Amino acid sequence: MTVTDTEPGPDVAALRRPARVRLAWLLALVAILVLIMLASVAFGSRVVGLDDITAAFGGADETLDQAAVVKRIPRTVLAALVGAALALSGTVMQGVTRNPLADPGILGVNMGAMLAIAVGMVTVGLYTATAYIWVAIAGAAVSTLFVYAVGSLGRGGATPLKIALAGAATSAALASTVTAVVLPRGDIAENFQSWQVGGVGGAGWAGIGQVLPFLIAGLVVCLLCARALNSLALGDELAAGLGERVVLVRAVAALGSVVLCGAATAVAGPIAFVGLIVPHLCRLLVGLDHRWLLPFATLAGAALLTAADVIGRVVNRPDEIEAGIITALIGAPFFIYIVRRQKVREL
């Protein structure tokens, strides 16, 4: 998966950070994530005090506030897991393609997973979370290959803009196909439409337990590819000269990314832009070294989606706005900014 235009931007030396600075940012990010997760269990249609939060963590659910905390804990955990998976998936996609616009939502990977689930529900009656995950991963993989193949056509190969345009067109086509598949089936249309917005409401420990092995597997694969992604950033020829098996590295890293994206989409719906925003922000903090960037993106993605879920619960109480809508409101302007800043004008 090679592109002809590497990601332009600041000089590499300017983005290097001493280890102590990176460690300080890492500790700060962990603290921020903990605070956001505490806010997630405290705020919602009801605001819960610290005493009830502490009691609920101890297993108490005697009052309404304690019961609310018990219900919010798995939701918070799922938001953190899905945000971490999408951010890590996007970071790896950008590293594999050397494309600053790569993101599971923009490239149509989410929509591929969603269409696969829709077809599975209509044709064979999928109903278990594990079946959703396997089908979503397969759909995400097929969509990824299709978008890259279309974006590679023509003069210049797979430029960033061509990949983004191919992904946008594929997403639109897949979204229309999903509607055509689901709409005639009134028995599943309502539940499916609420899921396709993207959110973590209704999370439970059983669903988390089913998706967790897939997320762990994708995480391990992606983190093991960190050093190889640094080599790919230097260009295919130089990476090969350093002993990297370029095609194998790209295939393995892409597989890890697709597994993360497919599993996250299966349990939370197609949440966009997390994989686009987080990698760019993390590069400003820790530089371009994927050995640092991937863990940072994982933590930052968890914090971002959890914060989006909290915002969606408090801005329109007692009703909720799904986290996928909040991330879209944040991510769409950021996407425009990245396009303008990177000047990816080649067609």
Describe the structure.
- This protein is mainly alpha-helical and 347 residues long.
- It has a single domain (70-340), classed as ABC transporter involved in vitamin B12 uptake, BtuC, CATH 1.10.3470.10.
- It is built from 14 helices and no strands.
- Helix 2 (50-57) packs across helix 3 (64-97).
- The longest helix is centred in the N-terminal third of the chain and has 34 residues, at 64-97.
- The chain is globular and about 65 Å long.
The fourth-level CATH homologous superfamily is ABC transporter involved in vitamin B12 uptake, BtuC
Please give the largest β-sheet. Answer: none
Q: What name does CATH use for the topology?
A: ABC transporter involved in vitamin B12 uptake, BtuC
- Number-wise, the strands total 0
Task: Please tell me what the overall shape is.
Answer: globular
The overall average pLDDT, rounded, is 84
* Number of separate helices: 14
Residue runs with pLDDT of under 50 for 5 or more positions:
1-15
CATH top level is Mainly Alpha
Helix content: over 70%
The value of Rg in angstroms is 20 Å
Number of domains: 1
Task: Specify the CATH architecture.
Answer: Orthogonal Bundle
Order of helical and strand elements: HHHHHHHHHHHHHH
Strand content: under 5%
Distance between the termini: 18 Å
**Would you tell me the structural class of the helices and strands?**
mainly alpha
Draw up the topology in text.
Layout: H1 19-42, H2 50-57, H3 64-97, H4 109-123, H5 129-151, H6 160-182, H7 186-196, H8 205-224, H9 226-232, H10 236-241, H11 246-268, H12 274-286, H13 290-314, H14 323-342
Helix pairs in contact: 1-3, 1-13, 2-3, 3-8, 3-11, 3-12, 3-13, 4-5, 4-6, 4-11, 5-6, 5-11, 8-11, 9-13, 12-13, 13-14
